[in-house]
Amino acid sequence: MTLINDRKLNEECGIFGVFGVHDASSLTYYGLHALQHRGQEGCGITCFDNRELNRIKGEGLVTEVFNEKNLATLHGDMAIGHVLYSADCNRKLDNVQPFIFTHSTGDFTLAHNGSLVNSTQLKKYLEDKGSLFHSTSDSEILAHLIKKDNDSRDRLFHIIDALNMMEGAFAFVVMTASKIYAIRDKHGLRPLSLGKLNGGYVVSSETCAFDATGVEFIRDVEPGEIVVIDKDGLTSVDYSKFKRYNMCAMEYIYFARPDSDIEGTNVHSFRKETGKLLAQEAPVDADIVIGVPDSSLSAAVGYSEASGIPYEKGLIKNKYVGRTFIQPSQALREKGVKMKLSAVRSIVNGKRVALIDDSIVRGTTVQRIVGMLKQFGAKEVHLRIASPEMTHPCFYGVETTNGDELISARLKDIEKIKENIGADSLAFLSVESLYKAGNRSELCVACFTGKYPTPLYKNQQ
Ligand code: AMP
Ligand code: SF4
């Protein structure tokens, strides 16, 4: 496979929407705050105040973009919001969502998570028809496709037509003056859940944002489903008869918060189960089990429980390393200035460590961690990874580098990877165990197997 070299903006991102709840912008603010782990580059909220759509958006964290004063200017009981994870540093503000579009049949606003595999083709088609794009985001494609036929049919039919032209991974919230549409792609790649509060409705990328805002979970939006929320309640429409449940495995492994439930499985429980299965598949003689904070801690607990090796907090994360933290120079790093993670000398000194990490992408993070544990006196470091070897790029919006930077694709041999990282032994979880951990028959595991659940286009092959 030729790997892509024209990688565009990748959007893991988080979306949130509120219909029929007093002070919808405040609720959206707290929802986005709970989804902050899904994107720290930018965020925004659009509200409808019975007259017009009003929006505030900016680069940075939710707490940096919003304050009591500007939030108080967003009135109304309908709102949508977005947190952006962007690999495109050049046009960041242009890509911060929600986007607002004006149209003869009424303005609308939308926010999205995911990535289309046919965006190049759709953009060309739309530009040939006269559309002008303001961002590099796939969200605009949906908007232009919705607007392309200027006939008098209900907007829902334009949305259905548009979605049927789009291929890939996406979750959308679209808001008009009277409705919110919550949409998931027909392959089921990206998560989106539905909840209720005080007679109104809420949608969110993850259920952790419901728990944080007192919202009662109703159900997940189904693959290929459009949930229309308006004053009459909920209506469900399938935009496609094709329906699969290929949820992104990386949502469970790394991306989602452990307190979220995705399609009925709690993320912490999934990770703990991968740790248990890993202990069965790749046992090791060690004195302690250590997880890399934060995303590997659940798997480390599982590994410890299944192996009987005590779990220890051998690595501590400094929670105050934010986006704007000034990274120490190479010279200071060599002198021992640690950034995000520190090893606990009294715990690791003289020990044989089973180190659990959720995944290896480039291999640079774990190489540094293994080096640090050894520097602090660990006798042996046995690396156990709670996911399979990542060998292929993701075309569905998860930034996993452009393929040739993946250490498993580059070195191709576990022994070589082990040596490169400096570990005493190395093992990965099997693909079968990923399915088993979530008790699932379908799951996207394409970055581990190269078997993509959607068709791919010329620029991806
Ligand atoms: P590295 O191997 O140095 O590229 O970093 C791998 C670590 O980054 C993993 O242990 C995860 O905790 C985390 N990670 C995995 N996938 C991603 C991703 N798509 N974006 C950012 N971090 C990730
Ligand atoms: Fe997730 Fe990997 Fe599938 Fe991308 S290829 S959607 S990262 S499982």
Strand-helix topology:
Layout: E1 14-19, H1 24-34, E2 42-48, E3 53-59, H2 62-65, H3 68-71, E4 78-84, H4 92-95, E5 99-101, E6 108-116, H5 119-128, H6 139-147, H7 155-165, E7 168-175, E8 180-184, E9 193-197, E10 200-204, H8 208-213, E11 216-220, E12 225-230, E13 233-238, H9 249-255, E14 261-262, E15 265-266, H10 267-281, E16 288-291, H11 297-307, E17 315-317, H12 330-334, E18 341-343, H13 345-348, E19 352-357, H14 364-375, E20 380-385, H15 407-411, H16 414-421, E21 425-428, H17 431-437, H18 446-449
Parallel strand pairs: 16-19, 19-20, 20-21
Antiparallel strand pairs: 1-4, 1-10, 2-3, 2-4, 5-6, 6-7, 7-8, 8-12, 9-10, 9-11, 12-13, 14-15, 17-18
Helix pairs in contact: 6-7, 10-11, 10-17
Bound molecules: adenosine monophosphate (AMP) and iron/sulfur cluster.
For the sheet with most strands, the description reads: 7 strands, antiparallel
Portion in helices? 25-40%
Shape: globular
Structural class assignment:
alpha+beta
The helix tally amounts to: 18
Determine the strand fraction and express it as a percent band.
15-25%
* Oligomeric assembly: single chain
Mean pLDDT value: 91
What's the gyration radius in Å?
Answer: 23 Å
Distinct ligands, ions and cofactors found in the model: adenosine monophosphate, iron/sulfur cluster
Number of strands: 21
Q: If strands are numbered along the chain, what order do they take across the biggest sheet?
A: 3-2-4-1-10-9-11
First and last CA, distance: 6 Å
**Which stretches are poorly predicted, pLDDT < 50 over at least 5 residues?**
1-10
